[in-house]
Specification:
CATH topology of the largest domain: Glycosyltransferase
Number of helices: 16
Shape: globular
Helix content: 25-40%
Cofactor: phosphate
InterPro entries: 6-hairpin_glycosidase_sf, 6hp_glycosidase-like_sf, GH15-like, Trehalase-like_N
Structural class: alpha+beta
Oligomer: single chain
Number of strands: 28
Keywords: Carbohydrate metabolism, Glycosidase, Hydrolase
Distance between the termini: 55 Å
Number of domains: 2
Radius of gyration: 25 Å
Enzyme class: hydrolase
CATH class of the largest domain: Mainly Alpha
Family: Belongs to the glycosyl hydrolase 15 family.
Strand content: 15-25%
Amino acid sequence: MRIEDYALIGDMHTAALVGRDGSVDWLCLPRFDSGACFAALLDGPRAGRWLLAPAGRQVCTGRRYHDDTLILETTWDSAGGCVRVMDFMPPRGQAPAVIRVVEGVRGRVEMRTELMLRFDYGHVVPWVHHDGGQLAVVAGPDAAWLQGPAELCPDEEAHRTTATFTVRAGDRVPSVLTWQSSWLPRPDPVDAVESLTSTELLWKQWLERCRYAGGYGEAVRRSLLTLKALTYAPTGGIVAAPTASLPEQLGGPRNWDYRYSWLRDAAFTLQALMRAGYDAEATAWRDWLLRAVAGSPADLQIMYTLDGCRRIPEWTVDWLSGYERSQPVRIGNAACEQFQLDVYGEVLDCLELAREAGLAPDEDAWDLQRVLMDYLEGAWKKPDNGLWEMRGPRRDFVHSKILAWVAADRMISAVENHGRDGPVHRWRALRAEIHRDVCTRGYDPGRNTFTQYYGSKGLDAALLLIPRLGFLPPDDPRVAGTVEAVQRELVEGGFVLRYRPGAEDVDALPGTEGTFLACSFWLADALALLGRRQEARRLFERLLALRNDVGLLSEEYDVTRHRQVGNFPQAYSHVSVINTAAVLAGDGDNRTRRARHHPGQSVAGLEETGNAIRRQRMLP
């Protein structure tokens, strides 16, 4: 099953992936970062799955989401009849539940269900027995119950439970799987019909709050729903993706666990949500942030668990073969221990955007920002691991330094535009110093481009963000030169690589990776800001065409195999759908406009830089 053959269902505590064959191949209970009880995605059926499909039929004839919801409708059509399966997870009540309702559309169809629960990422085979008309499954701390449409028959030799039943036109046949900690009483039965109604209402009411009115509305709405589905409702934390170890290179070792809340990814997600009018999510994330980062600013991590825990040990699941034999299968993420300078700027930028959106002031939040800025004043010169979490030596990454500039700029804006208190003269001096440093040490005048890190000849797609961040205005010749360099050196098959893996041994990892979808959207943004709007629109529509049949995108795209790769669905990619649609709709970013007024360099200085570039181009 290809990555793009999956669809997402979820309840804002966890999420499941459902394949075109009717199999739930990934589900972690009770929350996103719990151990998987269905892990067929990373091995095969033996690692756990829940199949529900017509007997003998492998792939559906069509599927879609029901209106603007997270209720998946999958249709199987044959000569004998037609059935529709509705998969969803209702709002969390006593316990998490996955509900699958088979509807008879035409004729009669024999259905088959197969349940293989395997707790702890496919490692633990549970004890299965009948309990009060339901199938009960128990293993250590985990218990589950399946209420199905027919007598479920455990197959002890194959460690699976199966059943067959016939559905006729007009029938509606539900199956309900619930989970609970094994030491707690069995949860009350879940009414599938009532749950379907409440789930539909939940998603539709949430989307009614959307204030986005630009073009590409269908794509924006689906991306908003996906981002909301990646939010952990109890705390406001946001996961980067609901999966672990889906490969960036099929068969390769670049396999990471994304079921945690990255400050950077969450900040990008909140920017997109706030742009569409979802201020409540911004407030919840701000509260999560204050709890998670409490302590010394020197100890700020790039990511936390959904409830703000700091320890995310990385280990390998040696009993899983990996998606299409991509090994190792990693759980946890050692990058949590890295120093990434840019996250300070990302957080302060997001909180400034919240102020601009009119969120109520929070004194604790401002105190946090003051503390982070005090630390950054003494730390911005340090080399770091960079935006892409390089596992090689720390370097002076240009994007990281620019985000240090962003941090100072947003703090100045808070004082000048929102009445906050702080040493604004000191911050202005720091902003100017960082700007000079980047433009002197991170810019290659011979090639008219900024570089990946100080002294490097390599490029980084994150440099495309320079005009959006307000570091330089779009009409600065260095911006155009950088965009052209990225197009020349980092584009493959029409899409953008993050950087060249293996070049200058920057990431210290073997293998390659696909083109990074968010970076490709960033190129569309940059082209639009440069006035090349038709070119930007063409690229954006090519990117939208990569979405699967239900509108979902993974992290990367393999231009050789024409397949989605990386964890799925990826928040970064769906954030970019929303932001680029807004840019093309003419919803300019205040930060970009402000760059025309305080880029950190005088107008005369900008003119001299432009003259120097033009002189360089005239040299033989």
